[in-house]
Amino acid sequence: MDSKLALVADGDERMRNLLQITLKAHDYKCITTNSGESATILARSNTPSIVLTELSFADIDGTEVIRTIRSFSNVPIIVISDRKDDHDKVMALDTGADDYLIKPFSVEELLARMRVMERRVVHKQPQVMHASVFENGDLTIDYGAGCVYVRCKELHFTPIEYRLICMLSQHVGKVLTATDITREIWGNSFDHTMMTLRTFVASVRKKIRQAGSEEACICTHTGVGYRMVRITK
Questions:
Q1: CA-CA distances (angstroms) from residue 233 to 137, 193, 204, 207, 220?
Q2: Of 85, 83, 120, 79, residue with least CA distance to 98
């Protein structure tokens, strides 16, 4: 992957220019487009380090951009949108976005979120102390390969979904607070990251269930956090 190459996809020319100037001032190379369709083409042909995308395009919806990029890449994707409805946020995150920033926003906040993506998402495998393969009921995680399986069927996780399930598996049987999880994965415990965490937990559960597992291996502790249950057979 090219170092510090950002793809900016936004139909607003002023926003594209603002982001391009900001990113170049912080040592990013930058490619821009006002088209959702071309965003997917540029992501495939240029292998950017990060994608910043709007949801509203003249040709296709931004969720389709995210879905298409996710089909061939684990590049971090941050949505920058004026859509404030929770449904839009959940749809974007569930489709494969890693973060969601509402316009207008501060440049400092955007750069901080990008730094979090750099530190915690881009091709970083969790540290494994005792085993390279984790097994729990129908679930298998091959840490070395970065793959997750249910009943030998590989699941396709986004980078944050993968970090989340690995974090839970490495503390199997222990309740992890929502604050600890969000700080580890996103670098903060703001309200928006708490909502984002709930969305990603729901997505991980859904993918495990759709792969054929009838075991509820991730347990919610209301008001506290989450725990991966040890499944015994």
A1: 7, 35, 22, 22, 22
A2: 79
Above 70 in pLDDT, residue 49?
yes
Q: Around Cβ 174, how many Cβ atoms within 10 Å?
A: 11
Dump pLDDT digits (tens) for 53-63. 999 999 999 99
pLDDT at 120: 60
Fill in the DSSP letter of residue 193. H
Would you tell me how many other CB atoms lie within 10 Å of the CB of residue 212? 11
Distances (CA, A) of 95 to 71, 118, 139, 199: 10, 20, 22, 11
Measured in whole angstroms, how far is the alpha carbon of residue 183 from the centre of its chain? 14
Whether the Cβ atoms of residue 55 and residue 10 lie closer than 8 Å to each other: no
Mark residue 143 as left, alpha or beta (left: phi above 0; alpha: psi -120 to 50; beta: remaining).
alpha
**Residues forming beta bridges with residue 6, ordered by sequence position:** 30, 50
Helices 62-70, 36-46: inter-axial angle, 10-degree rounding:
20
Arithmetic mean of pLDDT, 92-116:
88
Tokens of 115: 């730094």
Instruction: Name the strand (E) or helix (H) holding 16.
Output: helix 13-25
Name the DSSP letter for residue 11.
Answer: S
Please give the average per-residue pLDDT across 216-230, as a whole number.
93
